[in-house]
Every structure is written in structure tokens, then in C-alpha cells.
Design a protein that fits this description.
With 326 residues, the protein is of the alpha+beta class. The chain has 8 helices and 14 strands. Helix 1 packs across helix 2 (105-119), helix 2 crosses helix 3 and helix 5 (205-224) packs antiparallel against helix 6 (228-247). It starts with a strand and ends with a strand. The protein binds ligand FM0.
């Protein structure tokens, strides 16, 4: 009744921004990400009849009641599927610098779904695993797979056709994804809360919905053709549009800080100097810069020259779920 699994973080090139069902984590639009090699979560799960509640240890420390409740919710789904009513001890180790603007929820829930299903004795395929992980955090359904991954929004109300799929293996096309860590001052609006407020109130949300599927088609075609410039242009536009929706929300909010602009302008300057680099930003101030591997050192150096940049981590496409035997 014990298993250990590892899942890597992912960065969306075409964003998941808005739910049509909050209970089941069903998105309003299909989206696309790259799973990254450098940051991951390793999770061990033991189902134990002697336990009287779920126990969750995060990086060796007993987690808060709120954090434990979130994982217990996903364990409930897995217990129901496995037909077993046993509590679990969950040990999660995050090799994810959350300060670097990487949410650990995608890798965390993907690793939990994989380890817990295996520990309870379920033999699930990747599609089922993706559906389970999605119900912990939407973006987690993409971290089941390595490389380039599409999350299809599906049509059904029960979410049975809403899962991710690999569209290209991690070693089929190498790109560099530079995670640019900035000095962060303000308190942030969490992605879950931000996307809900946007769907409910933003006067610009319609514009998002009208164009995001087209952006996705362009990105997929660019990946199929290994057309870096086409991919870069559409991923940057898509990120800007997602952030524009927050400005039209009520009350309005924005994830960018002055340092975020410093990086955006530097990326633009690099392009003017002939280096093809593009940026994307999630629900926070930090920026990810995407470029060709041969340009990664030049881009890193340019980023490190910006006074408000604290650090730069270079990532590449990484693997999907792996099981670890001790
Ligand atoms: O990753 O409410 O998965 O496509 O990172 O847990 O389902 O944390 F920029 C925003 C991720 C959203 C875009 O949202 O939300 C993306 C975002 P949950 P997530």
C-alpha cells in the first residue's frame, strides 16, 4: 500500500484562464504547456489502516489543516475509485523554488495522483491519471506528460473528456525556458481567485474566449513545424491577452510589477538586436523567457544585467510522471 512518484512543473504557452465548472476543474478553453526538466515534486503515499485521518508532510514538516484538506479532497476521489476507505500518510518533497514564480501545485497534484492511485492498487492509464490530477489543480493534469502537452477542454459535463495529451516528446524539440526571478513586493491575487474574478466580471473576457482557440491552433502548427518564431509570437500575445483580462475585471487587478516591465522591455530590445526571445507570465510578477538553446547564455546575461532581476534559472523540456522504487 505504498508508492512514490515524481512529477515536473509545467509552463503554459497558451494559458488556462477560467473555469466553466469549479467543482470539477473544467476549463473554459483548451490550452498548451511545456513540462520542465529542472523543477519537480516527489511524493510518497502509504495507505495505513491504523491512521484516523490523512497526514500530509511537506518538505519534512507537518502541513497546515488547510493544505491537508486540499490533498484529502483528492485522496477522497482516489479512495472512492479504489473502493477502499483507508487514510493515508503523504510525504511530499518539492524541488520547486516557489519564490521563482513556479507554482508547486501542478507538480504536487500530479505526483500525488500518481503515487496515491498506485499505492491503493489501482491500475490507471495516463488519461485517467490526468483526469484525477485535474481535480486537485487544473494545470496538474498537464504535468502527467513530458514535453509539449495540450489540455483539451472537453464538452461533457462530467469532465470525462477533459484531460491532457502529449503532442510532442520532450527530446523531439529542445527549447530554452528561462525563469526570471524578480524582487517581489506586493501580495498577490492567487490564480484560482484571479481567474474566477475575471470570468465573473471582466469586460475583456469575451475577447479572450474569442481568440484563445485560434492561438492554440497557431501554437500547435508552429510546434509541428518546429517554427520557433511563430510559436514565440503567439505565446507572447496569448500571455498579454490573459493579463489584459485582469485589467477589465471588477475590482481590477494586475500581476505585473515594475520589474516585470523591465524584463518585457529587455526581451523586446533583444529581438531588436536580432536575438529571438519571447516572454510569458503567469499569475504573478515573474517572467519566463523562451528562446533557442543557442541563445540561452546571451539571454541569461541580458536578464542578469537588469537591476531588479534577482536570479535566472535555465530550464528545458522535461519528462512526465516517473515512479520511484526504493
Ligand atoms: O498554467 O484553480 O492550475 O495555464 O498558471 O488550481 O485549477 O493554479 F497564469 C495562470 C494556473 C493558471 C495558467 O491555474 O488553477 C496556466 C495559470 P486551479 P491553476
Amino acid at each position: 500500500m505504498q508508492a512514490t512518484a515524481r512529477a515536473h512543473t509545467n509552463i503554459a504557452l497558451i494559458k488556462y484562464w477560467g473555469k466553466r465548472d469549479e467543482e470539477l476543474f473544467l476549463p473554459t478553453n483548451s490550452n498548451l504547456s511545456i513540462t520542465l526538466d529542472r523543477f519537480f515534486t516527489t511524493t510518497s503515499v502509504v495507505f495505513d489502516r491504523t491512521l484516523t485521518s490523512d497526514q500530509f508532510f511537506l518538505n519534512g514538516k507537518l502541513a497546515s489543516g488547510e493544505e491537508t484538506a486540499k490533498i484529502a479532497r483528492l485522496l477522497d476521489i482516489i479512495r472512492k475509485m479504489g473502493g477502499k476507505d483507508i487514510y493515508a500518510k503523504v510525504d511530499s518533497d518539492n524541488q520547486v523554488p516557489t519564490a521563482a514564480g513556479f507554482a508547486s501545485s501542478a507538480s504536487g497534484f500530479a505526483a500525488l495522483a500518481a503515487a496515491a492511485t498506485k499505492a491503493i492498487g489501482l491500475d490507471v492509464d495516463e488519461k485517467t491519471l490526468s483526469i484525477i490530477a485535474r481535480q486537485g489543480s487544473g494545470s496538474a493534469c498537464r504535468s502527467i506528460y513530458g514535453g509539449y502537452v495540450e489540455w483539451q477542454k472537453g464538452e461533457k459535463e462530467d469532465g470525462s473528456d477533459c484531460y491532457a495529451k502529449q503532442i510532442l516528446e520532450e527530446d523531439a524539440w529542445d527549447l530554452s525556458i528561462l525563469s526570471v526571478l524578480l524582487e517581489s513586493k506586493q501580495k498577490k491575487v492567487l490564480s484560482r481567485e484571479g481567474m474566477k474574478r475575471t470570468v465573473d466580471t471582466s469586460v475583456f473576457y469575451d475577447g479572450w474566449l474569442k481568440t484563445v482557440e485560434q492561438d492554440l491552433q497557431v501554437a500547435k502548427a508552429a510546434i509541428a513545424d518546429r517554427d520557433f518564431i511563430r510559436l514565440g509570437e503567439v505565446l507572447e500575445k496569448n500571455a498579454l491577452k490573459m493579463h489584459a483580462t485582469t485589467l477589465g475585471a471588477d475590482p481590477p487587478f494586475m500581476y505585473w510589477q515594475s520589474a516585470t516591465f523591465d524584463v518585457m522591455y529587455e526581451v523586446q530590445a533583444l529581438r531588436e538586436a536580432g536575438i529571438h526571445a519571447y516572454f510569458t507570465i503567469d499569475a504573478g510578477p515573474n517572467v519566463k523567457v523562451i528562446c533557442r538553446p543557442e541563445d540561452e547564455q546571451a539571454v541569461k546575461e541580458a536578464m542578469l544585467k537588469i537591476p531588479t532581476v534577482q536570479d535566472v534559472f535555465i530550464c528545458h523540456p522535461g519528462p512526465g510522471i516517473t515512479y520511484i522504487t526504493e
